[in-house]
Each structure stands twice: as C-alpha cells, then as structure tokens.
Amino acid sequence: MNTVVVDSISAAEQGTSLWTDAWARLRKNRLALFGLWVLVLFSVIALLTPWLAPYAYDAQNLDLGPTPPSAAHWFGTDIFGRDLLTQIMYGGRISLAVGFTATAVALLIGVTWGAIAGYVGGRVDAVMMRLVDILYALPFMIFIVLLMVVFGRNLLLLFLAIGAVEWLTMARIMRGQVQSLRQQEFVEAAISLGLSPTTIVRRHLVPNALGPIIVYTTLTIPSVMLLEAFLSFLGLGVQPPQTSWGLLISYGAETMEEFPWLLIFPGAALTLTLFALNFLGDGLRDALDVRGSGD
Amino acid sequence: MPLLSVTDLQVDFTTRNGRTTAVNKVSFDVESGKITAIIGESGSGKSVACYSLLGLLPTPPASIEGGTALFEGRDLLQMSESELRRIRGRDVAMIFQDPMTSLNPYMTIGDQLVEPLVYHHKVSKSAARERALELLTEVGLRDPHATIDQYPHQFSGGMRQRVMIAMALINEPKLLIADEPTTALDVTIQAQILALIADLQRKRNIGVIFISHDLSVVADIADEIVVMQQGLVVERGDRAAIFDHAEHPYTRKLLDAIPAGSKAVTAEQREDLITVSNLCTWFGQGKGKEPLRAVDNVSFTIQRGEILGLVGESGSGKSTIGRSLLRLLPITSGEVLFDGVDVTQLQGVGLKQMRRRMQMIFQDPYASLNPRMSVYDTLAEPLLLHGIESRKTVEHGVLRLMDDVGLPRAFVRKYPHEFSGGQRQRIAIGRALATRPEFIVADEPVSALDVTIQAQILDLMLELGSEYGLTMLFVSHDLAVVRHIADRILVLYKGQVVEQGTGEVLFNNPRQEYTRQLLQSIPGRALIS
C-alpha cells in the first residue's frame, strides 16, 4: 500500500477509499471470491432462465413419471415427468429474488431505524424500540396471513412482508452498535467539525457497525428463503406450477426414499448458495475491517 | 546475593511478518528492600522482559531465546508451568496500570483478597478475612470494615489501586512487579500511591521492579534505574548517577523531555477572544435529585493568541468546561462570548459556522480517530465540509496539513491503526487545524503518550499555535506540562476556579492550599524547578 504516488492521488481513489480498499482485500480472499462468483453465476442463470432452461417449466410428461438423472434429463424428472433441472432453474428465480429483496428491505429499514434510535437516544429511542418490541411480540405468521388476506396474494408483497418482519433484529443490532460507538471521541470530533447528524451516522457510525450487520445479513438470506418455502407450503406463497427451491425441497423430502434425486439436487442448489453467502459474508467482514489487514 | 538476577535475557516474537527481538540481552538485578525502576517508552521491551520472567507471555508468538533469571538461586526461565504458578502471586506479585480491569467487577474486594490466601496457604476463610482487613488498613483504605464487602466500581481509581496493592501483598511476596501503577491516576493520587509503595517496600523489605515510561515518576523512589530502548538496556545505574550524569544520549533525551520551567510570558495586553461568565454545567438535574455540579459558576477570559492552561484532577470539571465552550455538552446557565457572539445561543447555520472557528484535540488518539477512515478521508472531511478546499484542490490541502503536522506524505492512505500514538495525535491535530480555527480546546492531548513523544507534540502545538495564530485552552492534570506550555494557568477544584495566574507566580507563591498540594504532588519536583 506504500506505493501510492504521494504528490497526486488518482481521482478514482478519492472519497470511496474504504470501499476500494475493501475490494482490494476481498480479491485476495479466494473463498470469498468463490462465493461471489457462485452467487453471480446463479443470479445470471436465474435472470436468463427463460432462454436457458431445457424444457418449459409447466411441461409435464405423465407417461414418463419420475426418472433418475439421464442424458435427456440431467437431474431426472419428478412424479409428473417434469424436468428437475428446469424446475430448479425456475425455482432459483423465486428463491434468490425473495432472499435478496426481502433481505435488502430488512437491511434498509433495520439499519436506518436502529441507527436513528441509537444516535438520537432518549425519548425517540424509547418510542422507536418499544415499537420494535410490539412487532416482535406479534406472531409474524398472523401478520403475513393478514397482509395476504387484505392485499391478495402477490409475490412482491410477499417479499416486502418477509422483509418487514426480518428487520426487527437488524434494528436491534444496529442500535446496540451505534449506542456504543457514539460514546467514542471520534464522534465528538465529528460534531465539533460541524457535520450534520445524517452525515455522522452515514460516514462515521454505519461503516464502523458493518461487521455484525454483514454477518447477520448472511444469516438472514437463507432464513428468508426457508420462510418462503414454509409460506408456500401453507399456500400463501408460490403456487404450482410455479415453484421455488424451498417448495422443491419439501416435496422432495416427502418422496426421498423412492426418488432421492428429487431432494438431493434442489438441496444441493440451496446448500451451495448458503455456502457461497457465508464465504462472501466472512470475506466482506474481514475486508471491511481495516484493522484486520496485515499491511 | 540479589533477590532476582536477570542475565542476558532474550525474548523474540515470531509473527507472519518475521521475527523480532523484543528483549535483547537484558541484564539487571533487584535487591531485597530496594526499588529497581525499568524505564522506557512503549515498545522498548520493558514490560515484555518482566512478563516473560513469570511465564505470562503467550507462547507463541513470544519465545524466550536465552538468558537466566535467578530468583533466590533458582532459574525462573527453566521452571515448569506448575512450578511458576506456585511462585506467581506468592513469592512474586504484580500490580497493573489499570486497577479497574484487573479487578473482577462481580466479586467484592474482600472475596478477591481472601481467594489467594485460601488457595496458596490453605488458611481458613475467617482467618483470611482478618488478614485482609489488616492489609486494607495498612494500605490506607478508608474504613476497611465497611468497605471490604463493596465491589470494585464503588471505589475511586486511587482507592482501587490501594486494593490492588493489598492484593499483591497478601501472600507476603518477596518481589513486587509494578507495571505503570500510577499512570492512570491523578497527580495528587499518584504521589500518595508512590509514597505508599516506597513505604511498604521499606517496611517489609521486599524487592520492587517499577516499570514506567516516565523518569520523573521514579525520581523520588527508585534506588536503581535501568533505561531500555528498543529491547536493549542502554544505561544502568543508581538514581544519582542517572539523574546527575547520564551518559547515554537516550537517557539524556528522556531527562530533557521532562517539561521544565515556565513559558516566557509576554506582557503585552491583547483583546479578549473569549469571555466566559458564570458558566454552569450540571448533570442529572430534575426528578428531585441533587444535580452533579460539574462546572459551577466559572468565569474567565482568554485573550487572542493566548494559551490558557486549565489544571485540576479528574472530576474537577476541567474537560466539561472545554466541551461546554465548544457546545459539545449542553450548559445549564451562563454565557460564552466568542469574539462578541454568544456561543450558547447559536443554532443551525450560525452554529456550524462557529464550529469552524473553534476546534478540539482529544486525549485519546486511539478513540478520537474513526478507525475506518484513512488519513486522507479524515483530513479531507473538514476541508470539504466548510468549503475550504474544492474537490479539485482538496488533495493539496490534505498534503499541506500533513506537512504542517510533520507526517510523511506517503502515509496519506493509511488507517489509524497503522500509526503510533504520537503519529495519531498528529493526525488529530491536523484535523483540528483543517478548518483554520481561531480557538482550540486541547483536552489532555499528551497524557496518553510517552514522555519523549509528549515533548514532541507539545513543541508541535506551540509551533503551530504561533504559525496559525491560535488561541488555546490547554486542559491537563499535569502541572508541569501546563506550566511549560501555558501563558496563564487556571486551577480548578470541584467545578470552581480556585486560583489563577502565570506559571511563575503559581509555582513560586501558591496562595491556595489546594494549589500547594498539587505542586507537592508533582513527581520529581526537584528536577523541574
């Protein structure tokens, strides 16, 4: 890092040095890169599925029935003779979309809510956190069922509803972080420089609270995917012939003794995604922690 | 035969970046009934040397590469862990810098005192408690019968250190290792603790290793002084030899770093930049509770270009005054006029503009810099915020600031954790100067630093002060430092100003009892006057 030209700093480096440095460190972490590439690959496949999938997602072949993997059907077929690879590809679209969207919603609300409560403190904090407590106490299933009943079944709404439940823990973590950080002198220094509260939270508090947030995010994405499967199983989420990984796994589990591939392949897709997320999450946490760098 | 005789001790650290020798062929002796002081700055290996004797270093990364340490004729370095465990706490005891972190917050001090007795000597609980009470009385704890069942947080820092000393003494050790035992304490308390250690050591005829970064602290109590630098012993001798004719240049540098003398004061009268009238900052009022009057009816003025020293012990309200002036704390009542404007009434844009004109330098350079912002970002932020530089010119502004505070330009992309304490404080000073302020509050800016670094930072502040035409409020518990840098000194006690005057006048004719007490407490008084 000492090779920086000292009389002029290239324009690209200015302002975002934390992120550019983090990227430089992330690139050195092979596992994290592997995780990143797996996620990118899965996302690209999900986006291009309508053009890539070997069969139509609703094409049945009742005469064929369940068959193990073969040259025509790489991952085999299910009891309706549908191609499992196609199912997994279409299922991935839903699962990844739910995972990322709902988590993004949770992140956005949770981090903002927690940061404001933690930074402002006092009565505002008390009111905001009591609200969180109340929402915690509500059985979230009922909450989601209510939303579905009122607004009708709608995938986007499902994403938002799950996100709106998952942000509670995020807000608590963020608030705890911010509360301990705002006692530090660098925050006082920022105040005495004349920075606005928004800038202080954005530039000085959030970056320092990222570690636990990232870890929790990587835990949230899989739990959101499983939650979607559960809701779909209850008939509140995705309905056949549309499918998701969660649904495929729960159907596969029912028939795993006769047709194990129906469980193994969707399970492998989900597992691989989770591994990739965890590697990337760990890598990101290390990369963003400037103290962890050995140079 | 000396109680402890260390010969050619060598300790290496192996890390990913290779191997470094932290302690290099170090030899020293400790006699019963004498104090051997080991002096050096952070990283000199003074603590590592002592910790390695007791097997207290994690191995790896540390490894003892050679030498002997004969304690009563037996080599500590050859002992097994279980043999060492019997020696630690019984024959050799330790006192640490921070009594709060070395006491268990969930145990009463009585229980903590009794534990080693019961463990090492199989004494009955009630007998051990009697012994604990005796010791607490001996170390001067107020009313031991009432306080023995209290928890550590219920004691002040000085009292906690007394408890630590009692704990160290409870097994009647022959050797006591004190690692910077007074660094976290106020001067007046420091003087008491130093006197206590010297007194106990003479009475009980124990050998003491006193580790410190500050020569002046041991000036009154040490028998032998060992000066270490970068793992090597550079000079060794009795107290008189070190203080009167030190030979090694580093020892002389340490002696020179002890702030001495009063600043030459110019008599010229300048306009008042800051007028503080009847300032009160109270905490925790309301709910029918008696508020804590941290700052109580304080009035003073600071002239343009003047450095005003603010002295007092912890809890005297000195930091609160600084923060009140800068609107970092809400004040209860009073008026702070800055160049004719009442700072306490400002809001919004007016406040932001005022913040540009007054800045702060904090005590702890480890906490006052955002760990996720590089030097560049830290310095660029205020420049851009107040429009002092545009996006295009900001990098020149940053580099100029780095030149001003004496940081190599090559460090611009580094993060705070990559710097030493002194360098961090330079970054913090650079940030404070970035807005081109007229007034700076420096809150104990050197008390977290090594003595030699202290001198450098003080010089830098004096130099930049005149270069930038700064007015400064210099807050410190250390009278010697304040006298060195300030034009005029305000002595604060329990939230009120008890005395003020130039350093010369205050040192030679203190009028108040409290000021006299403060002066008495300065370690190594003989050295600085």
UniProtKB/TrEMBL annotation, chain A:
Cell membrane is among the record's keywords: yes
GO cellular component: plasma membrane
InterPro entries: BP-dependent_transpt_permease (IPR050366), MetI-like (IPR000515), MetI-like_sf (IPR035906), OppC_N (IPR025966)
PROSITE patterns (alphabetical): ABC_TM1 (PS50928)
Entry keywords, A to Z: Cell inner membrane, Cell membrane, Membrane, Peptide transport, Protein transport, Transmembrane, Transmembrane helix, Transport
Single Gene Ontology BP annotation: peptide transport
Superkingdom field: Bacteria
Bilayer-crossing regions: 31-53, 94-119, 131-150, 156-174, 213-239, 259-281
The UniProt record lists the keyword Cell membrane: yes
Subcellular location: Cell inner membrane; Cell membrane
Membrane topology annotation: Multi-pass membrane protein
Record-stated family: Belongs to the binding-protein-dependent transport system permease family. OppBC subfamily.
Name of the protein in its database record: Oligopeptide transport system permease protein OppC
TrEMBL record, chain B:
Phylogenetic classification of the source organism: Bacteria, Pseudomonadati, Pseudomonadota, Gammaproteobacteria, Cellvibrionales
Protein name in the entry: ABC transporter ATP-binding protein
Domain ABC transporter as annotated: residue spans: 4-255, 274-519
Gene Ontology biological process terms, A to Z: peptide transport; transmembrane transport
Annotated organism of origin: Kineobactrum sediminis
Keyword field: ATP-binding, Nucleotide-binding, Transport
Keyword hit for Transport: yes
Family: Belongs to the ABC transporter superfamily.
GO MF terms, alphabetically ordered: ATP binding; ATP hydrolysis activity
The organism's place on the tree of life at top rank: Bacteria
KW Cytoplasm (keyword) present: no
